Amino acid sequence: RLPPPVPYRRFLGWLAGRDPQEARAAWAEVLTGFDEPTLVGPAGRVGQGPREVASFTVSEDTTEALGELARSCHTTVSTVLHGA
Question: What's the rounded Cα separation, in Å, for the pair 12 and 32?
Answer without folding.
Answer: 28
